[in-house]
Amino acid sequence: MTTMIDAPTYSDTVAHFANLIMRASLQQVEQASKWYHEANSVAREIASNMTLDIERASCIVAAFSIRERWSSNVRKALQYSMGLDVSGLGVHVNLADASMVHGFDALKGLKTNAFARAIAGDESAVVIDIWMCRAAGIGTDSPNKTQYRFIADAVHDAAALFGLSPRFFNRLYQLFLVERLLNKGKMLERFGYFLYYLLFPSRH
User: Residue 106 gets which letter from DSSP?
Assistant: First the structure.
């Protein structure tokens, strides 16, 4: 699928994702299976409040995800949908306004756009965060388009090995990474990793 990096390196990345996901717990599988359905229910509430389709409502949820805890993300998106003043980053409201008009096209960031598509129900959407970048070993926490596509393609191919949707596999892998770091590594790193996913689940 990918057009980047030599085949052995790509194959190694797919194998790495696949090998680790086989160690996911049943609890992680259950959590991953529910997460986007619950996020979709938030988008549907926003769609109802604003008489929008699910695409635009999902984009509004994603617009408020930047540098926000999931609970705060949801609260601000719902406030916006009810016409209330929303505190925080100006980019949130600007993106939400644009999302009402342009839908997915309003979100230019690869991760934010993928997050909106995943919330809307796109089972092929893959959200690449800094931890996925590090797991893939690309050498940066801010992937360019080629690097993002490289990791996303690897997730697609690894998911296919198990007959899973890329969206579900992606979320399950992120949950697994949390557990893995909590059980290994330096205490400070473990604590920081835990806080990241506790406070920022929407930045997966």
Answer: G
DSSP state letters, 42-104: HHHHHHHHHT--HHHHHHHHHHT-TT--HHHHHHHHHHHHTT----S-HHHHHHHHHHHHHGG
Q: What average pLDDT score do residues 25-41 get?
A: 92
Q: How far apart are CA 84 and CA 34, in angstroms?
A: 29
How many separate domains does the chain show?
1
Judge whether residue 107 has pLDDT over 50.
yes
The whole-model pTM stands at 0.82
Structure tokens at 133: 């970048």
Extended beta strands in the chain, E state: none
- Of 127, 131, 126, nearest to 182 (Cα)? 131
Say which amino acid occupies 161.
L
Angle between the 166-182 and 187-199 helix axes, to the nearest 10 degrees? Answer: 140
Assess if residue 71 is contained within a domain.
yes
Pair 154, 195: CB distance under 8 Å:
no
Q: Which two tokens stand for residue 100?
A: 């009402």
Token pair listed for 83? 């016409």
For residue 2, pLDDT over 60 is answered with: no
Q: Domain residues for 76?
A: 7-203
Tens digits of residue pLDDT in 169-191: 999 988 887 666 656 544 445 55
Residue 1: inside a domain: no
